[in-house]
Every structure is written in C-alpha cells, then in structure tokens.
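Worked Example 4.2. Consider the chain below.
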Amino acid sequence: MKNIDPSAKIGETAIIEDDVTIGPWVVIEDGVTIGAGTRVDAHCVIRRGTSIGKHNEIHPGAIIGEDPQDLAFDKNAVSYVQIGDHNIIREYATIHRGTAPESTTIIGNHTFLMAVSHVAHNCVVGDHVVICNCVLLS
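Applying the procedure from the previous section yields the following structure tokens:
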C-alpha cells in the first residue's frame, strides 16, 4: 500500500510501486518510476526520465533528474537518471540527467551520497560507493 502525503504532487504517468512512502511537498513528474520499499522524504523533487530502484532512502530536499548544468544542453533533449537499489541519498543531494540526447547519469547499488553532494550529468557511479558531504562529481 502506497503511503503518499496529500500535499505531494505526483505526475499522472509516474509509476510508483506498492509500499513506497512519499513525504510532504514532494514533486514527482510524469515519466518517473520508483521501486518498492523506497522512501522519498519531504521537499524532494524527482524530474521526468528518472528511474529509481527498490529500497532506496531519499532524504529531505534532494533533487534528482534536474537539467544538467551545461551551457551546451538543449532543453528539448530527452535524457535520463537511473538509480539502482538500496541507495541512501541524503539531504539536498543533487543528481542531474545526461546532457546528450538519450544519455544517462547512473548510480549503482548500495551507494551512499551524503548531504549536499552532487552527481553531474553523464556520471556513472558504481556499487558500494560513498560520496562524502559537499563532494561534487562531474
């Protein structure tokens, strides 16, 4: 059974598995998928083209799938973020989608992104990686 706070805004085409918890003031756009057992805490934003696996913890204020910070980026390009299973994404961490059309930013499994860390467009982060507070990958 989904546990979605009534203040959350969920896109009509978002696919959210059973037993996902979504906190207050979360925004999840169309075209997002979220796997079973995942928790999305207050004030998170998850943009289109994002796929999140099972049993992830996404803490308050995280932003996932935002446009890349790249002056060459075409706002009409379709690109993605793919996040595996059993990850911890702490407060205010950001993960941006790929720059080139059909490109993907990838986070593996059992990865820990500490508070205010940033994974830029087209990065590939493997399994069992720890990214410390305020670290920026590009």
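The chain is about 0% helix and 35% strand. The chain has a mean pLDDT of 97. Compare this with Example 4.1 before moving on.
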